Amino acid sequence: MSTPAPGLNEVLQRTFAFPKPHFLSVTDLNEVEVANLLDLAESFVALNRQTSKKLDLLAGRTLMNLFFENSTRTQSSFELAGKRLGADVVNMSPRSSSIAKGETLIDTAVTLNAMQPDLLVVRHASSGAASLLSQKVTCSVVNAGDGQHEHPTQALLDALSMRRACGRIAGLKVAICGDIAHSRVARSNIAMLQMLGAEVRLVGPPTLMPSQVDRWNVAVHHDMRKGIAGCDVVMMLRLQLERMDGVMAPSQREYFRFWGLDREKLAHAAPNVKVMHPGPMNRGVEIDSDVADDLTVSLIQDQVEMGVAARMAVLATLAARLDNER
Ligand code: NCD
């Protein structure tokens, strides 16, 4: 690169080797490692806002995106993250419907591994899929969402968005609201936020709470206004109809009345409350457009921007680990 981009030295100083060969779960990291990743991601935020966004930290490396489930934000942000760091990026979206899931996954993993990728980003409808795949390949695996289990890079980008907007994470009161039962975003965020010292509350109808929620060490509220009272961050989740068998699915109008975030309910939160949503949003179901589009409270677009930076930090550190192993 002829003129070093501002922030490049910072990036190089902050890049370290990822502590594990794979990033499968928030529990792969400790508090200090998360803080270091967030600091590194900050320097990618600066880089991504420039005209020239390219670095060569992943030059010569191959990144494969293997998405068995649909994705807009996650897949494109991993693709951009890989390309901005100089990797060759291949996107694959196999259809998993006709073949038994376990077989598809393992066959595909072994086939792809033979092409010598360095990094494999995987999303799959089955909990544990990324971990299973990591045992069958020789490259680094990143979990981009496995069933309702975990979505660790989402938790990282959410932490980055929160830290930028609120100046800290420790001590924040965060309400995660809606369809907790089916949400990998909720599971990863609870683990991440508790590690970073936030107070997490879960808010939603009893039918959309996980059956063993009493073992999760979080306060559970079944009244939206009481649940978000005094909260610094209100994180809304999508009603994940594709994971419901129809029994739990309420009428969407009823759902909005009790659990949809609108101005009136939001007024119960802290005065400087920030609203988050991982997307895709069901407008008028779990969130009112009036709130989602108000940039003075909504971090939803910031979350998308931070997704690229956070994933660059993960890929750069995983690649640094691969470099050390050479
Ligand atoms: C989430 C996911 O796929 O788990 N979305 C995302 O990654 N941006 C949440 C969802 O699908 O509701």
What would you note in describing this structure?
L-aspartate binds at residues 101, 184, 238. Its EC number is 2.1.3.2. GO terms for molecular function: amino acid binding; aspartate carbamoyltransferase activity. Residues 171-317 form the Aspartate/ornithine carbamoyltransferase Asp/Orn-binding domain. The chain is an alpha/beta fold. The protein has 2 domains: 8-150 and 305-325, Rossmann fold; 152-303, Rossmann fold (3-Layer(aba) Sandwich). 40% of the residues lie in helices and 13% in strands. Strands 7-6-5-8-9 form a 5-stranded parallel beta sheet. The chain has a 4-stranded parallel beta sheet with strand order 2-1-3-4. Strand 3 (119-124), helix 5 and strand 4 form a beta-alpha-beta unit. The longest helix has 26 residues, at 300-325. The protein is globular. Mean pLDDT is 92; it is low at 96-100. The site of N-carbamoyl-L-aspartate has 11 residues, from helix 3 and helix 7. N-carbamoyl-L-aspartate binds next to helix 3 and helix 7.
Give a brief rundown of this model:
The protein is of the alpha/beta class and 326 residues long. It has twelve helices and nine strands.
